[in-house]
Amino acid sequence: MSDKSILDHITELVEEENRLRTDSSRPEVKAARLRDVGEQLDQCWDLLRQRRAKREFGEDPDTAAVRDAGTVEGYEG
Questions:
Q1: Which residue segment(s) compose the domain that 51 sits in?
Q2: SS3 category, 18
Q3: Are 8 and 37 contacting, i.e. CB atoms less than 8 angstroms apart?
Q4: Whether the predicted pLDDT of 77 surpasses 80
Q5: Over residues 42-70, mean pLDDT
Q6: Share of the chain above pLDDT 90, in %
Q7: 45 pLDDT higher than 70
Q8: Which of 7, 33, 8, 11 is nearest to 20 (CA)?
Q9: Total number of domains in the chain
Q10: Please, are residues 41 and 13 in contact by the beta-carbon 8 Å criterion?
Q11: Average pLDDT over the chain, rounded to whole?
Q12: DSSP state of 17
């Protein structure tokens, strides 16, 4: 997966998130999907950061891997 494909997926998720936020129908389904989209966004950004860090330190960015949502969501900055 390339940085561009990750960024394209992020764009798609952000567009979906915006659509969901303006949609007033089925709030229980919308809330669950918003959580899912938010987790996927966090995972994508995390993967992109991993790839950039590996590249910066001379490692192969293709060895970066998507981490599970629990790990990514549990970060404390």
A1: 3-73
A2: helix
A3: no
A4: no
A5: 96
A6: 75
A7: yes
A8: 33
A9: 1
A10: yes
A11: 93
A12: H
Q: How far apart are CA 75 and CA 66, in angstroms?
A: 14
User: Please, what is the end-to-end C-alpha distance for the chain in angstroms?
Assistant: 26
| Rounded-to-integer distance, Cα 62 and Cα 11, Å | 21
Name residue, tokens 């969901």. 20
User: Which one-letter DSSP state was computed for residue 67?
Assistant: P
| Phi and psi angles of residue 58, each rounded to the nearest 5 degrees, phi first | 75, 15
CB atoms within 10 A of CB 14: 13
pLDDT of residue 26: 84
Widest Cα–Cα separation across the chain: 48
d(CA 54, CA 9): 20
List helix spans (H) across the chain: 3-22, 27-56, 69-73
For residues 47-62, b (16+ Cβ closer than 10 Å) or e, as one string?
A: bbebbeeeeeeeeebe
DSSP-derived letter for residue 75 is: -
